[in-house]
Design goal:
Shape: rod-shaped
Strand content: under 5%
Oligomer: single chain
Order of helices and strands: HH
Structural class: mainly alpha
Distance between the termini: 85 Å
C-alpha cells in the first residue's frame, strides 16, 4: 500500500487541482494567481522605494490636495454664511415693515381717541350751558318771589329779608359752581389735548428712530448681532 501524499507536500508546479479551487481552474489558474501576487509585491516594493527617494514630493502633493479640500470647504462655508445673512436681511425687512404698520395703526387710534375726547369736552360745555340756563330760571323765580313778597303785609319785611339773603346766596353759589365747572372743563380739555399731542409726537419720534436705526444697521451689516467665522 503506497503512502498518502498530501497536496501541500508536493512542489508548486506539480500540485493537482483540489476541490477548493474554482471549477475550470487548474495549473493555469494557480500560475496566474502566483503571477498576480508577485506583481502586487513588486508594485508595493517600487512604491516604497519611490516614497523613500522622493517622499517630500509625495508630501507636497498630499499637502496641496489637503489645501484644495480645505479651500473647497471654506467656499462652501462662505456660501452658506452668505445665504444665512440674506435670510436675516429679509427677516429684518419684514419685521421693520410690521413695526411701521403697527406704529401707523397706533397713531390712527391716538387720533381717534383725541377726536373722542374733544367730543366729550363739547358735551361738557353743553352741560355747563344748561346749568347756566337753570340758574337763569332760578333768578326769574326769585324775582317773582320778591314781587309777591313786596305785596305781603306785616311779615313782608321779614320775608323780603329772607328772600334777599337766599337770593344772594343762590346767586353766589350758582355763579361759583358755574365758574368752577367751566374752569375745570377747560383745564381738563387742555390737559387731555396736550397729552394726546405729546403722545402722538413721541410715537412719531419712536417710529422715525426705529426706521433710522434699522436702516443704519442694515447699511453697516449689523443684522441683530455680530457674525463671526
Amino acid at each position: 500500500m503506497s503512502p498518502v501524499v498530501r497536496n501541500e507536500d508536493t512542489p508548486l508546479l506539480e500540485r493537482r487541482p483540489t476541490t477548493q479551487q474554482r471549477p475550470g481552474g487548474g495549473w493555469s489558474t494557480t500560475i496566474k494567481s502566483v503571477a498576480v501576487g508577485a506583481l502586487c509585491v513588486s508594485a508595493g516594493v517600487a512604491g516604497t522605494l519611490a516614497f523613500t527617494r522622493h517622499g517630500h514630493h509625495g508630501a507636497g502633493v498630499a499637502s496641496s490636495a489637503l489645501g484644495a479640500a480645505k479651500g473647497g470647504a471654506k467656499v462652501e462655508h462662505l456660501g452658506a454664511k452668505k445665504a444665512s445673512i440674506e435670510d436675516r436681511i429679509s427677516a429684518l425687512e419684514a419685521t421693520t415693515a410690521k413695526h411701521a404698520t403697527a406704529i401707523k395703526a397706533v397713531a390712527q387710534q391716538t387720533v381717534k381717541h383725541s377726536t373722542a375726547i374733544k367730543a366729550v369736552a363739547g358735551e361738557a360745555v353743553k352741560h355747563a350751558t344748561a346749568i347756566k340756563a337753570v340758574a337763569g330760571e332760578a333768578k326769574q323765580a326769585k324775582t317773582a318771589a320778591n314781587a309777591a313778597a313786596s305785596t305781603a303785609s306785616g311779615a313782608a319785611g321779614a320775608v323780603q329779608a329772607t328772600l334777599s339773603n337766599t337770593e344772594t346766596k343762590v346767586d353766589s353759589d350758582v355763579s361759583n359752581d358755574v365758574s368752577k365747572t367751566e374752569n375745570q372743563i377747560g383745564n381738563d380739555v387742555t390737559q387731555v389735548e396736550n397729552q394726546v399731542e405729546g403722545q402722538a409726537t413721541q410715537l412719531e419720534d419712536v417710529a422715525k428712530n426705529t426706521v433710522a436705526n434699522t436702516e443704519s444697521a442694515i447699511a453697516k451689516g449689523n443684522y441683530g448681532g455680530a457674525i463671526s467665522d
